[in-house]
Amino acid sequence: MQNHNISPNLECPGALSDLILQGARQALPANPAQLIRIPPSGPRNGPLLPLLIGLIDAAQATAKAVADNAWEDGTPLDQQLARDLARQCRAIAADLETASQCPSTWSLPSATGKELV
Q1: Predicted pLDDT at 41
Q2: CA distance 39 to 58
Q3: ∠ CA 19-66-70 to the nearest 5 degrees?
Q4: 72: which of 36, 92, 105, 106 lies 20 to 30 Å off by Cα?
Q5: Contact 107, 100 (CB under 8 A)
């Protein structure tokens, strides 16, 4: 069995990360609001969600290509690598589910803590 030295968090060099982000941005239409109907999600998440959607779409297409290539070449994906990638996907899903469960009226206490008394 090959040792791929897989870290707990799969990472890629900065240049590859930039290339992935650039590809996701290019996958989005010039005006994503026309094609993607995103419910109000706050001023800070509004710009992030179209990028996240593009990244997930790109990841799905890439995963499909990897599966197709493995079957066509008759070379299975390394099982440890497959488990690590699947774990990362589950972590993304958990983060998104957590984001959907926060209370909409939550706020930090004031500096005086008056409302806690």
Answers
A1: 83
A2: 22
A3: 150
A4: 92
A5: no
User: Whole-model pTM?
Assistant: 0.59
74: helix, coil or strand?
A: coil
**Which residue numbers in the chain have pLDDT < 70?**
1-36, 106-117
The number of CA neighbours under 13 Å toward the Cβ of 111 is: 0
d(C-alpha 78, C-alpha 63), whole Å = 14
3-class secondary-structure state, position 38: coil
Tokens of 49: 């969600």
Neighbouring CB atoms inside 10 A of 54's CB total 20
